[in-house]
């Protein structure tokens, strides 16, 4: 680049690992100093990198146009999925450009709505976000959790719904937790950790989670310890109370693996903070989720002996089990118990179907959805009133009311959008991966888009942790489409689109399948005339950032640009920070000699090589990201800037008081999106991206 990058001093630190043969392997880590986010050296480096990046982005001709258009596209009312408690209804709502959505309540799902909690007044910069909300069964009390500056740490408080005043809390140092109310509304269960040591709130490992019970009117110091397992420091606890109020159900989780233990305790026999649990599932052999109950019978959604999922009835007194909904050809993604039966959400080639079954599991009818897309459902075992939110690539999220058993979807809102959706179309194509696996992808483009390789195309992927990428609306992507871009969303192994077998095929020693699938999608798009390498960009966040990093280090010739957001990029040390250890079920760990070589082989940080022409790359992170600590992005950016042999720019954009992404204020979302789109438009403008070509 014409202006040099900020200096990134290289130290002589190295770590020693053992491989599967027991040999010691020395691996240099010259940027270890960047792991301390608060050191003066790191702070100076962050400031210098941000100044260099801002100098570059501010000169891009498209940046201002994207900001203006994105602001207009974002400015539409967004009605969230309603839910009901005690005859009161609740939803999130953003009229357009508020930094954070407001939590509202009403006496009818059709309104009128009034504000119950406005997080925009909790901070001057909009970086305090509402991240959890649970209402007592009588609708009288709201337990809500806020996060600050993008951190995963939660602070719980209690608000009186009628008066709108806080009446309890704060409960601090909660993380990866909801709130499960007792049926009488006297208190709720939540999960928490010990307070971190000084300076470790954003980097220290999160272990020894506790399940607590908070009784209304008491201070956090008086909360009752329900569950803790010091002998199993990596176990976490997620509590729920069955809809009939009979059972306290605890899912015991181990990292991000979908497999869990399942413990229950009758609430009618013991107080909330005492009594023995009955272990229904005592090993991590499969996923078990309680979705309803009828006396001593629990209804469980499980993938035990059914990788695509099934519904089982389990009598916990007699031990009798029977399958109600057997494994089918589509993935069973969600089951909700409703009066007289079950609603199921299934996944077919990465889009949803919604079906009603009777209590014996027999299929009654499929609820017609507007098009291929994604549904979110709110339902209760005791109510025939169901709420459904539907979204697709070209349709904003829209809430509906559904009256069971025979009702149709009744729209509750009609989001008005300044965008001509009819000018675009969504198609689905399948690439063939290296080992012959068919890999689906959705392609969103203007109708009649040329197939001569000329389209600026963005390929997006994730491929991990059993997470399914389904059609979803993004106002940001509309601006890309309007300016001639094509958007492609790939459904890679490692995700959950085709069940647990599909997930496991992209984990541990098979993680390379994910990168091969992504490369196959890129090659397919070129072969089918959608684009060509110098007009093709890739994007991914978190585990998707790992995907982008591995893709440009393994196959740099396939891409003209890359955006790696909050990525996991140092695969040898990821498990040492915050909740990183929990990802080992997908990745393995470098201190396991049998996994060391696999991780080293694809770790993006460790596979950058001098003399290689890498595509134009924009790395984004937040200095408060305590999910994937920013050191991953810092170290990768420093090394990529050092080894890049071509003229394509390598930049890092670091959001101050920014975290992993959840809860980011609207203005910051717009600014970041404009920077990414302007960068990509410039990168894909010429045959070979240089700093000068971005300004054409």
From TrEMBL:
Keywords: Hydrolase, Protease, Serine protease. Residues 7-414 form the Peptidase S9A N-terminal domain. Residues 1-21 are annotated as: Disordered. It comes from Deinococcus wulumuqiensis. It catalyses: Hydrolysis of Pro-|-Xaa >> Ala-|-Xaa in oligopeptides. One of its GO terms (biological process) is proteolysis. One of its GO terms (molecular function) is serine-type endopeptidase activity. This is prolyl oligopeptidase. Its EC number is 3.4.21.26. InterPro entries: AB_hydrolase_fold, Pept_S9A_N, Peptidase_S9_cat, Peptidase_S9A, Prolyl_oligopep/macrocyclase.
